[in-house]
Amino acid sequence: MPAQWKPHVVRQGDFLDALAFSVGVEPAVIWDAPENEELRSKRSDPNQLCPGDLIYLPPKSRKEGQIQARGDNAYRATVPKNKVELIIETRDELGEPIAVANAKCMITGALAEAEDATTSPEGELSFEVPIWVRQVSIYVEPIHTHLLVKVGHIDDHTSSSGIIHRLSNLGYLNTEATGDTSLHRDYVDVAYEEDEADAKAQAIRAFQRDVGHDEDGQISSELNRELRSKHGS
User: Fold this and answer.
1) Contacts from 35-43 at CB under 8 Å and sequence distance 24+?
2) What is the DSSP letter of 149?
C-alpha cells in the first residue's frame, strides 16, 4: 500500500521549491498532485504561498545505492539554487529615488565564503543562493549600508501581508520600527501609528499618487497589478 501524503501548514518563509527539496521530489510532483487541487484553485502562482495555506507533501524519497563496508563511500548531491534579484536605491533630499549604480556589494550568509557582486547602472543586483538559505546580508560599500534580505518571505500579492511587504520594499512603509524616515517622501512608519490600517491606507494613497491613480487608500485589482509590476513579483 503506497504511503499517504501528509498535510503541511505553510509557515512564513516556506515556498514550493524548498518544500519539494525537503522531501526529495520535483516541485511539479507536489503542485500537480490531486491532493493539492484545492490549493491550486486558491493560489495562481505556486511560488507565492501564504502562511496558513494547507499543502500536502509526499513521503520523503529514499534512494538506494551500493555501499562498501569498512571502506570509504563517496556521495555527490546537487543542491538547487534560487535566483535573488533586487534593485538598490537611495533617496535624495526631496525623496526621489536614486539608483545605487555600479556599487560593489559583499553577500554573506549564503555560502561558506563571502561573495562579491556589483550592481548594474540601474542599481540591479542578481545572485544565486542554495535552496535552503532563508536570508542573506548584503553590504553596499558606497552607502555603507547592511541590507538583510529574507528569501521566500514575501506573501501572495493578493493577501494583505503581501501588499504590506511590497509597499515596505518599495519604501512606502516601515515595518521594522527603525525610525528611519528617509526611504520615501510620503513614507509611513507603521511602528509609530496607533492605527495600522490607517498607516497602510496612507501608504497606498502615496503609491496611488506616484502612479497617477485616484487617492482612495484602497487596493483595486488594477492597482494590485501596478504594485506587483513595480515590485517585480
Assistant:
1) 35/5, 43/156
2) E
In terms of pLDDT, which residue wins out, 64 or 101? 101
C-alpha cell at 116: 562579491
* Helical H segments across the chain, by residue range: 16-23, 27-31, 37-42, 160-169, 196-211, 221-231
Nearest in space to 36 (alpha carbons), one of 28, 12, 93: 28
Which region, left, alpha or beta, applies to residue 202 given φ > 0 means left and ψ of -120 to 50 means alpha? alpha
Mean pLDDT of 186-205: 62
- pTM for the whole thing? 0.67
pLDDT at 47: 80
Q: What are phi and psi of 169, to 5 degrees?
A: -65, -30
Find, among 90, 85, 86, the residue nearest to 171 by Cα: 90
Give 121-153 pLDDT, tens digit per residue.
Answer: 888 888 888 888 888 888 888 888 888 888 877
Q: What confidence tier does 54 reach under pLDDT thresholds 50, 70, 90? A: very high
Q: Could you tell me where the DSSP H helices lie in 25-158?
A: 27-31, 37-42
Assign 79 to helix, strand or coil.
coil
